[in-house]
Amino acid sequence: MRDPEPPFRQVRRRQGYLPLEDLGLIGDGATSALVGLDGSLTWMCLPRFDSEPVFCGLLDHARGGHFTVAPEDLVEARQHYEPDTGVLITDLRGPDGLVRVTDALALRSGADLTDDTPSDRCELVRSARVLAGEVRLRVELEPRGGAQARSLFSGLEVRPARRPDLRLHLRSNRPLGGLHSTHDLRAGDRLDLVLSWGRFHRHHRFDTDAMLRATTGAWRGWMSHFSYDGPEDPLVRRAAITLKLCDDWANGSLVAAPTSSLPAPIGGIRNWDYRYTWIRDAAFAVFALRRIGFRGEADAFLGWVLDAFEYSGRPRIMYDVRGGPVPDEVEDGGLEGYQRSAPVRWGNGATDQRQHDVYGEILDCAHQWLRTGGEIQPALWASLSGLADAAEEAWRQPDQGIWEVRSEGRAFTYSAGLCQVALDRAARIGETLDLPGRTSRWRAAADRLRRLILEESWDEKAQTLSAHLDGGGALDASLLALPLREVVPADHPRMVATVTAVAERLSAGGGLLYRYLHEESPDGLAGDEGAFVLCSFWLVDNLVGQGRIEEAEELYASLCARASPLGLLSEQINPSTGEFMGNFPQAFSHIGVIASGVNLARAKAGTWR
């Protein structure tokens, strides 16, 4: 990602699957796709992020489907992005030649990506050009479940067997004999492919160069708003683009990841569908995006959260990208899972869990909305006031917590902390606008709850705040987020001690952290997991808050060095091997890259907080 001429490397597979580090993300604000180092596209949901995937070889290399453009007898390959864009370049070397494949989900000509409007063309461009020698290029288009194809409009009409609602149109600058073809090409020759859905192009010009120029121009126009002066600039730039690729541009929502069921760990059952929007992601994402120049995206996400809350009539922890309910969780026995890690799941069973942090997430969004010029209408304020009243009592009750455990609930300290946030933000909104409500009561309750958290969750023997309000000394890395949400100051003696305890007892080595220890805090699921990337960025932020800048810089650099060659990060990392685990790319991890970089830059400039 930081090298414009990355080295070639051999393609590795484990049980038929590429490592997650060898996948690149492209997208158009409505959906996204993953393209492998070997030229295979093994993940794409149509027409939107949370639709059934047309290609999901990522979850079953034999039966999931793929769209491959690659030389026969591939020897080695490399990937990089066109700078400041979501356009991906893959160079593939065969026995006798070198071909470059440019991949993009095309954007409309003149698209302004700062607008909350669709910019997608419903078209995937795969453009191959032979750079040297001779290449026999194979093209294979295999939707999951197979497809029927017939000649239509100088291309192929493709009808996926599993998706009778979907008509695909594959066009090319060369004749296509079917869904599988080979093309003998020499230096300078090209094979251009465009896969369309939703509309067919009978009389439109076939000009992939123009489509790629428009797409590149739109991305670079958007990145002209990028503003950052801090460490790891190339990775922060790529993190911003990755978040934009996880953003539904028409609705303003942000998916947690564009994939489902990538396991953590390999062979385990912790395989979840992340193609939805979690309310808790909003406050973290808004903090990150606003501070690097993307106020429009931040405001759109805040507005989306408040709209979804008003529309649903009650606080939900997650929604689909349009603000509707998340489908029930089902298992798909027709797919073996990534590296044979079943089950594959669609939908998410945590959607109706009790998670008390949602009160604080929504009210914090409302407070940020107000601070940036948004308006709080009386009907919305009535609903928000109800949330504050509910938070005043909810913290006493067990819930499933930020990590969505599937065991019996506990009174989690983080959940109580976000109830404190709900009360504090409601009081701030009421005080700012002089609105009717129990402002003084919320303020007093917020102050009491902050003191109670510091007292009740403190374990004197372990010298740390505990994962649960009843103490006991069990640790949870979510405690590191308390200063970030302004519940407890980062330099409070008990917070300083907690940071020390988390860094020592939850350490996975090399600056990585586990979320919690399963023997201390059973979560109702078998097996262990990897190190959770975002938690280590939270540790960076706490070190900054304590004035330990050199330690924070060292840790931040080590975490950024773990990104893939394309600058992408997963949800988790295997601490033994460094391999990526869990859904990929993970928005939370890239939020951490941005937020911690901003905090470090501000601390060094003397403007932090």
Q: Could you give the topology of this structure?
A:
Blueprint lengths: L22 E5 L4 E5 L3 E6 L7 E3 L10 E6 L4 E6 L6 E6 L3 E11 L12 E23 L4 E5 L3 E6 L7 E5 L7 E7 L3 E8 L10 H16 L9 H13 L1 E2 L4 E2 L22 E2 H12 L4 H18 L5 E2 L10 E3 L11 E3 L10 H15 L6 H17 L18 H21 L5 H18 L1 E2 L4 E2 L27 H13 L1 E3 L2 E2 L17 E2 H13 L3 H12 L11 E2 L6 E2 L5 H19 L4
Antiparallel strand pairs: 1-2, 2-3, 3-4, 3-5, 5-9, 6-7, 7-8, 8-9, 9-13, 9-14, 10-11, 11-12, 12-14, 15-16, 17-18, 19-20, 21-22, 23-24, 25-26, 26-27
Global shape: globular
Distance between the termini: 31 Å
What oligomeric state is this?
single chain
Gyration radius (Cα, Å) is 24 Å
For the biggest sheet, the summary is: 14 strands, antiparallel
Number of helices: 12
